[in-house]
Write a structure and sequence with these properties.
The protein is α/β, with parallel strands linked by helices. The protein has a single domain, classed as Alpha-Beta Complex (Spore Coat Polysaccharide Biosynthesis Protein SpsA, Chain A). Strand 2, helix 2 and strand 3 form a beta-alpha-beta unit. The protein is globular. The chain starts with 18 loop residues before the first strand and ends in a 21-residue tail after the last helix.
Length: 264
Amino acid sequence: MRTQLQPAVLWDHAGMPRTLVAIPALNEADTIAGVIAEVRRAIPAAEVLVVDDGSTDGTGRAARDAGALVITLPFNVGVGGAMRTAFLYAQAHGHDVVVQVDADGQHVAACIPDLVAALDGASVVVGSRFAGGGTYGVRGPRRWAMRLLASTLTRVCRTPLTDTTSGFRAADRHAIGLFARHYPAEYLGDTVESLVLAARAGLTVREVGVQMRERQGGAASQSPFRAGMSLGRAVLALYVALARRPVPLPQAALPAGAPPPEGR
């Protein structure tokens, strides 16, 4: 086990970026403690924030008992709204990096250092299950829709992308400032729209291969049918996002005296 998590040693040093691991969670009491423990093993120095998105099963209590900071939302706002809360928290508390991790155990926390390391030269890094990091499979119409999204966003972001609906990703200070104000809230639209938002604000987007697995407990928030419908809406949301006027990068997202980053 130690060899798998060896890169995490880097994150014990005080000179490393101030990293916030944000975990949006809706009714994940069965898995949240295990996810928090895995994150702490991977990057012990990171602050772990669980955004309890209107859960009714004791998710927030389980997260607190596991040692995470918890922000409890009074009702369900979706992953996008929960992540905007996390970005606002990160901006207010001076974090350099935000890493988004699912609460259901699908994301392998040992890959987090790879996501953060890839921020050297990028502002948003997407963890891809299809870029050589694992064997996660998607078939049928869902896969076709994901390929259409990936093809379009590859052109928009001017970088190869294969897994644009992945919620396993990292953001630097530039992206934190942008997302704290404008992170999209629609289901799955938050993932694809946020990439459009970042690219059109001049931020560099990059993809790295990661490992993912099946959810480790509980039930998905949407049925396969509804998830497929939502993925179709994500395709529509992508083209709506492309039709909108670009949002400029907030000056507050830039270090003093620094020019805006150049997109690639």
